[in-house]
Specification:
With 216 residues, this protein is an alpha/beta fold. The protein has one domain: Rossmann fold, CATH 3.40.50.2020. Helices cover 29% and strands 35% of the residues. It has 6 helices and 12 strands. It has helices spanning 12-20, 28-46, 83-92, 141-149, 168-177, 205-210; strands at 2-4, 52-59, 62-69, 73-79, 97-107, 113-121, 129-133, 136-137, 158-167, 182-189, 191-192, 198-199. The strands form 3 sheets. Strands 1, 4, 5, 6, 7, 8, 9 and 10 form an 8-stranded mixed sheet that branches. Strands 2-3 form a two-stranded antiparallel sheet. It has a two-stranded antiparallel ribbon with strand order 11-12. A hairpin with a 5-residue loop joins strand 11 (191-192) and strand 12 (198-199). Helix 1 runs antiparallel to helix 2 (28-46) and helix 2 (28-46) packs across helix 3 (83-92). The longest helix is centred in the N-terminal third of the chain and has 19 residues, at 28-46.
C-alpha cells in the first residue's frame, strides 16, 4: 500500500519544499526541524493503521472510555541521515523500542556501488509493528539490505517504510519485494540518474542535516 502525502494538499508540502529549496538548505537547524515535522505527520498517519482496544481512564470526576493502540512498535532508522526523521516518529511513538543501522554506498570507479552495513542494533521484532525510516528512497537497495540484516531479530507482524522523497523506480522495487508493506512518502520523483541520485530530489540528506562527511 502506497501512502503519498503530496497526493493531497497539506502543510507537509511546505516542509518538503523547504527541504528541497537551496535558499533554506544552508540552515541545518531548519533542515533537521522540517525532517522532524514530517516524522510527526507520518507518525500520526501511521497511527490510523494500528490496533486499538478500549481502556477505562480514571478522571477526577469519573471514568472515560478511550480507544488506545496496543501495538508493539519498533522504530528503526539508517544512520546518519535518518536521525531527524526518526526523532519525529519517536515524538509520537514515545514508548517504542528503537533500532539503528549504519549503512553506506561503496562506490566503484565505474560509477556502480554496493550497500555495506557496518553496524546494527535491534530489539526483538517478533510480533512487532516495524517502522523503518530513511529520508531518501532511491533504488531501494539500502532498505532491502537493512531488512534482510534484521531477519535474525525475529518476524515482525506489520511493516511500515517511511521516506520523505522516493523515486518511482525505488517505489516499484520495494513494492515487488515487500507487497504487504505500507510505504509512506511525502513526494515522488520520476528521475533517477546513472549514479542513482533522485532528481530533482534535495541532495544529500545526511550532509544537509549534519555537515559534509570527511570522506566518501
Amino acid at each position: 500500500m502506497i501512502h503519498n502525502l503530496s497526493s493531497q494538499n497539506s502543510i507537509a508540502n511546505k516542509y518538503v519544499s523547504q527541504l528541497r529549496d537551496i535558499h533554506f538548505q544552508n540552515n541545518r537547524l531548519i533542515f533537521r526541524k522540517n525532517m522532524e515535522r514530517l516524522g510527526n505527520i507520518f507518525a500520526y498517519e501511521i497511527s490510523k493503521y494500528l490496533n486499538y482496544n478500549e481502556h477505562d481512564i480514571e478522571t477526577p470526576l469519573g471514568t472515560a472510555k478511550t480507544m488506545l493502540p496496543d501495538n508493539k512498535i519498533v522504530l528503526c532508522t539508517i544512520l546518519r541521515a535518518g536521525l531527524p526523521l526518526h526523532n519525529g516518529l519517536l515524538d509520537y511513538f514515545d514508548e517504542a523500542n528503537n533500532g539503528f543501522i549504519a549503512a553506506y554506498r561503496k562506490t566503484h570507479k565505474d560509477g556502480t556501488f554496493e550497500i555495506h552495513l557496518e553496524y546494527i542494533t535491534c530489539p526483538d521484532l517478533n510480533g512487532a509493528t516495524l517502522i523503518l525510516s530513511d529520508p531518501m528512497l532511491a533504488t531501494g537497495a539500502s532498505i532491502q539490505k537493512t531488512l534482510e540484516s534484521m531477519e535474525e531479530y525475529g518476524k515482525y507482524k506489520q511493516l511500515h517504510i517511511v521516506s520523505v522523497i522516493a523515486s518511482t523506480y525505488g517505489i516499484n522495487y520495494i513494492k515487488r519485494l515487500y507487497p504487504d508493506a505500507h510505504l509512506w512518502l511525502a513526494a515522488e520523483d520520476d528521475e533517477l540518474t546513472a549514479k542513482s541520485y533522485i532528481v530533482p530530489g534535495l541532495g544529500d540528506a545526511g550532509d544537509l542535516a549534519f555537515g559534509k562527511k570527511l570522506q566518501e
